[in-house]
């Protein structure tokens, strides 16, 4: 019987799979304006998601009652946030790295 030793030693979650897929995108094909936009949007989105998570956590800690019919929506939002934050972080890191490389190339050729 063949076994997959990779999944036995390092089980991938949907979060790590998504981040890996995003990391494989070709950021070298984007212009500096597109990279700036991508980096800014990702950073702003990360900040907004973190504020939302903090607010939800503080609300729960302070005993603010959540209606039972809203629990499914809150759970779905938290799961989506858990997937989106690493993706946004990867987008931010990749676009920033590519911008840095482009700037270094321009300085070396200029």
Give a written overview of the molecule.
The protein is mainly α and 110 residues long. Helix content is 76%, strand content 0%. The N and C termini lie far apart (59 Å).
List key phrases describing it.
110 residues, mainly alpha, 4 helices, 76% helix
Summed up, what is this model?
The chain is mostly helical and about 110 residues long.
Structural class: mainly alpha
Q: What is the end-to-end distance?
A: 59 Å
Main beta sheet: none
Tally of contiguous helical segments: 4
Mean pLDDT: 79
SSE topology string: HHHH
Spans with pLDDT under 50 lasting ≥5 residues?
1-9
Helix content: over 70%
| Outline type | elongated
Radius of gyration: 19 Å
Give the total of beta strands. 0
Strand content: under 5%
Compile the SSE list and pairings:
Blueprint: H1 5-9, H2 14-23, H3 32-61, H4 71-109
Helix pairs in contact: 2-4, 3-4
């Amino acid at each position: 019987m063949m076994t997959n030793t990779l999944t036995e030693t390092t089980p991938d979650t949907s979060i790590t799979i998504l981040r890996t897929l995003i990391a494989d995108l070709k950021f070298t094909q984007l212009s500096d304006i597109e990279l700036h936009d991508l980096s800014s949007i990702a950073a702003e989105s990360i900040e907004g998601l973190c504020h939302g998570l903090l607010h939800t956590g503080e609300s729960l800690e302070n005993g603010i009652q959540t209606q039972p019919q809203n629990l499914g929506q809150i759970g779905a939002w938290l799961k989506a946030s858990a997937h989106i934050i690493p993706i946004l972080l990867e987008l931010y890191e990749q676009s920033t790295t590519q911008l840095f490389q482009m700037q270094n190339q321009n300085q070396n050729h200029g």
